[in-house]
Amino acid sequence: MVVGALRANGDLLFFDVDWRDPGMPSGSPFHEIIAQPHIIRLADEQALTEHVRRSVDPYDPIGATIRSIATCRAATFGYDGQAFLCLRHEDIAPVSADQSLVEIKEWSGYLTETDYFDGYIRQVQSGG
User: Could you tell me the pTM of the whole model?
Assistant: First the structure.
C-alpha cells in the first residue's frame, strides 16, 4: 500500500539518506556530530518495496525517510512500524485491502514545525 501510494502514476525517482558514522555499515547507530549522509537510490519497484519492508520492521535498524525527487511524495516510519506518507494534494488517499489491519488518517497539520521532510537535510547541512 505504501509503495503503491509513493509510485502512483509511474513515479520512480526515490531516494533515502542513510546517516552513519564514518566506517560503519548501513543501519548502524550513529552520532549526530560525526555522522555522514549516504544517498541510497531506490531505482526500481523491487528496491523500493524491500526498503519499505525493512523500514516498517521495528527490529530492523534501517529506518528511513524515502522521498521522490520528481513529485516530493515521501514516507517516514515510526519505531513501532507505522508509516507516515506525505502525498501531493492531487494524490488519491491509499486504501487498505484489510481495514481491520490498517488505520488511515489525514493529518495535514502533522508536518507543521517538524523536520520530517522538507527541512531536515537543509537543517543538518546548515548545522542547525
Answer: 0.74
Residue 121, pLDDT above cutoff 90: no
- Tell me the CB-side half-sphere exposure of residue 119, using CA atoms within 13 A: 8
Grid coordinates of 125: 547541512
What burial class does residue 47 get, using C-beta atoms within 10 Å of its C-beta: 0-12 exposed, 13-18 middle, 19+ buried? middle
Annotated domain spans of the chain: 2-125
Query: What's the pLDDT tens digit per position in 36-79?
Result: 888 889 989 999 999 999 888 877 777 778 988 888 888 888 77
Angle at 68 between CA 62 and CA 69, to 5 degrees: 125
Say how far apart CA 82 and CA 37 lie, in whole Å.
24
Q: CA of 73: how far to CAs of 12, 14, 20, 36, 60, in Å?
A: 11, 9, 24, 24, 23
Can you list the positions of beta strands (E) in the chain?
14-20, 36-42, 65-68, 74-77, 83-86
Q: What is the pLDDT of residue 28?
A: 82
